[in-house]
Write a structure and sequence with these properties.
It contains 11 helices and 9 strands. The longest helix has about 35 residues.
């Protein structure tokens, strides 16, 4: 939601026509990507956080991200710099050393990070939205104070393990087991896809209690001898994120590492509902980046003696992109306000996640079309955003699953087995 989009040169456009630079700047100031003036709906604090993260991203992330994305490696040197931003926070984490934030402010952090790179945003979202919120929502007060302050300072990095090799969309059917043995628990099973899991300090693992068949949550240290994480290779989306295949083999954890308020899958759902706000904002960030690049490119790229922005087809594509990303912004802001007011429902979160990810992918696809052959190169960034959007459509509940959640609500009929 910028008043002025970032320069095309900063995004690596090597064949841009400099003679049209002033025209681009004039149009950016006049319209930007905040077409419905939604920045007016933000508080001063929210605007400050947004500007701070944007400045950091332009200076620290954008210059290095393509190289790390191509090599599928994580830029660990960014973690202490991110920590200095004091951007770790959420609407209910303020008493654990986190920066007090509204849900909208937290969303704007993810929005700005995703506008530059989806992997960095996902790393941050896994740490704050999944690992920290699991402990915050499901842990005891003693556990909150034990883990969260160091995580708020990003001295300790967390991960989250729910999905399994044979259970993604049907995550409720967990096969990983937790068996009580005195003051310890023995965890066995496999997990797939947890981000940060290869190198995190600890990970929240969900497993089914063999005694009552209910889902429980455990904080597992990465150096636990029963925990093994292997990086998933060959990914073409979110390449910087170090996703893992995890094996738990007689993994011993103490009773005080069990999150005391997780006693069923419904408790897990409390954590997941909040993450869909993060995903909606992240998708919006990707869409805004793609639109900014496509508009600037269309104004500067000349074919047949004139800028391609002067053609009906390109203008139609740009308007479709702008219409979609504006609706995504509306979804995201309203979702955040509902969370802050305590009025959000699971089906609202599902609809926001569904709409923003599906439309965000479409915006990135159209942007890639506008750029023609240049659209497939990392120099222009759009293909990276498009590839990363494929993961957003899938994770935290696929678009299809979100549609069934909403469909069940509006019809009263369940399409789930």
């Amino acid at each position: 939601m910028s008043e002025q989009f970032s320069s095309f040169e900063a995004r690596g456009a090597k064949d841009a026509d400099p003679t049209t630079a002033s025209l681009v700047e004039d149009i950016a100031r006049a319209r930007g990507t905040d077409y419905f003036l939604m920045k007016d709906q933000l508080t001063d604090h929210e605007k400050e956080i947004m500007a701070k993260v944007r400045a950091f991203g332009e200076a620290e992330i954008l210059p290095v991200v393509n190289d790390y994305w191509e090599r599928a490696e994580f830029p660990f040197e960014l973690i202490p710099k991110l920590a200095e931003l004091n951007a770790v926070g959420d609407y209910n984490l303020g008493d654990c050393g986190c920066t007090p934030m509204t849900a909208v402010a937290n969303g704007l952090v993810n929005y700005e990070l995703s506008r530059l790179d989806g992997s960095i945003s996902t790393f941050f979202g896994v740490h704050v939205g999944l690992a920290m919120q699991s402990i915050n929502i499901l842990g005891s007060e003693e556990q909150r104070q034990r883990y969260l302050p160091a995580m708020a300072r990003m001295e300790k990095i967390g991960a989250f393990a729910l999905s399994e090799p044979d259970h993604g969309s049907d995550a409720v059917i967990l096969e990983a087991t937790a068996e009580r043995n005195g003051d310890e628990w023995v965890l066995n099973g496999r997990k797939r896809w947890p981000g940060n899991a290869v190198w995190c300090d600890f990970i929240v693992v969900y497993a089914r209690d063999t005694a009552d068949n209910q889902v429980k949550a455990f904080v597992v240290e990465r150096d636990n001898p029963g925990y093994a994480a292997t990086k998933i290779g060959g990914k073409m989306s979110l390449r910087i994120v170090q996703n893992a295949d995890i094996t738990l083999t007689n993994c011993l954890v103490s009773e005080d590492a069990r999150l005391q308020n997780c006693n069923s899958f419904k408790d897990v759902g409390k954590v997941l509902a909040g993450t869909r706000n993060f995903v909606a904002w992240a998708a919006t960030g990707h869409a805004v980046a793609a639109y900014e690049i496509a508009l600037t490119y269309a104004l500067r790229r000349k074919q047949f003696g004139r800028p391609i922005a002067r053609t009906q087809m390109i203008q139609s594509m740009l308007v479709e992109m702008l219409a979609d990303l504006t609706a995504m912004q509306l979804y995201s802001i309203r979702m955040g306000r509902l969370i802050d007011e305590g009025k959000v429902e699971e089906t609202m979160a599902a609809l926001a996640k569904y709409y923003c990810t599906v439309k965000g992918r479409n915006v990135c696809r159209l942007a890639r079309d506008v750029l023609g052959g240049n659209g497939i190169t990392l120099d222009f960034h759009v293909m990276r955003h498009l590839c990363d959007m494929e993961a957003l459509v899938t994770y935290e509940g696929t678009a299809e699953i979100q549609s069934l959640i909403v469909g069940r609500h509006i019809t009263g009929q369940s399409a789930f087995a």
